[in-house]
Design brief:
single chain; 349 residues; alpha/beta; Rossmann fold; UDP-galactose 4-epimerase, domain 1; 2 domains; 9-stranded mixed sheet; two-stranded parallel ribbon; 12 helices; binds nicotinamide-adenine-dinucleotide
Length: 349
């Protein structure tokens, strides 16, 4: 039996990955989440049924989804003490995890990244424990989600913003300063990924997603928050900062698609952008949602809100040349999907 591990499996990216694994494979999935941010699977899995096997929740008729609720670091500690901890305690018969997706992290929106940077720095401890474990366990393949936040903020200013290319992070040159402790932890994670691949022979690939969004993302992120306000026809429409700051939005379905292409092709710990290559300002995003909602609001800037870097967007040439990959979901289509989801929720209230 193949069994994959998904840490942070109840968070935004994790939920989408777990659903994809369950629908496109017959494999088992071992999911870990402390539910600090994530939502219990009964809220996001269809036809949810479960039974307990000790403190492990076994989900679904086919009993191939396992949910271990708690701090991933504790489980990593138990597995370090006893490499067959999961097999013995929960009577699951397997040798090694096949694919390991490590989404457990303290992420948050801009408010958390700038408001409580030392809490976000705890990601360093989660990642250090994680990478040590994979060098011992040696799963078949590992996905480490870095972030576009790992790029130097000096390349994302009002006057000097450029489309960020993979080569703008080079561990043999001056790395610049990434975005707060969040960016530092991701940059460190990428370094650890390369060490795991080169010194321990563990196949790892890193991704640098830009602004991932989707229908079931938390309201602390701008896309669903703006969509919900457009669905309520907010007027005047509040925007954080001037609204001229821009991001590169990419739909979660595209992110998941590309992760599998990378896992099949990359093993050396290197990192790849996942974006659209298109810079969209928040004013443009509000325009788009207002257009989808069919009205024309006035815009009210909230200048005391944190906005982060001015412009962050991807250069997708390297990915296109190497893999011939481009996102399939256009900005309008993706945002329409998010809008419809928010409207449905509003109509239910
Ligand atoms: N969503 C994006 O656009 C995006 C962009 C760049 C990078 N990433 C990276 O992808 C990963 C997943 O991001 P996300 O958007 O799904 O975030 P998220 O906050 O929705 O998911 C993270 C999950 O990890 C869980 N978690 C946190 N600490 C934990 C711990 N110690 N033990 C167990 N579970 C823990 C949370 O409860 C949450 O469910 C993160 O590493 C993030 O940095 C995401």
């Amino acid at each position: 039996m193949k069994i994959h591990l998904v840490s942070g499996g109840c968070g935004f990216v994790g939920r989408n990955m777990v659903r994809r694994l369950l629908t496109t494979t017959k494999d088992a999935v071992f999911m870990i989440d402390d539910l600090s941010i994530g939502r219990h699977p009964k809220e996001w899995l269809e036809n949810f049924t479960s039974e307990m096997r000790g403190d492990l929740e076994v989900i679904g008729e086919e009993k191939r989804l396992f949910f271990w609720q708690g701090d991933f670091r504790n489980l990593l500690f138990y597995m370090r003490e006893n490499p067959r901890y999961i097999q013995e305690k929960y009577h699951i018969d397997f040798e090694k995890f096949t694919d390991v997706f490590h989404f457990a992290a303290i992420v948050g929106g801009r408010l958390k990244i700038e408001g409580d940077p030392m809490m976000v720095a705890l990601d360093l401890s989660i990642d250090a424990e994680f990478f040590y474990w994979i060098t011992q366990h040696k799963p078949a393949r590992v996905l480490y989600p870095s972030s576009s936040a790992a790029y130097p903020v000096s390349l994302q200013t009002t006057t000097g913003a450029i489309a960020l290319s993979e080569g703008d992070i080079d561990f043999d040159k001056n790395l610049g300063t990434p975005d707060m402790t969040y960016g530092w932890s991701k940059l460190t994670g990428e370094f650890l990924a390369q060490i795991a691949a080169k010194h321990y022979g563990v196949p790892v690939v890193c991704i640098r997603p830009f602004s991932g969004y989707g229908e079931d993302q938390e309201q602390s992120y701008p896309v669903p928050a703006i969509a919900a306000r457009a669905a309520r026809k907010e007027n005047p429409f509040e925007v954080w900062g001037s609204g001229k700051q821009g991001r590169d939005f990419v739909h979660i379905d595209d992110i998941i698609d590309f992760i599998f292409i990378l896992l099949d092709n990359v093993k050396d710990g290197s990192a790849y952008n996942i974006g659209s290559g298109q810079l969209t300002s928040f004013l443009e995003l509000i325009d788009l949602f207002a257009d989808i909602a069919g009205y024309k609001p006035a815009v009210k800037p909230l200048l005391d809100k944190p906005v982060g870097v001015h412009s962050r967007y991807a250069n997708m040439d390297f990915v296109d040349n190497k893999f011939g990959w481009k996102p399939k979901i256009s900005l309008r289509e993706g945002m329409t999907r998010v809008y419809e989801a928010q409207l449905k929720q509003l109509n239910r209230q």
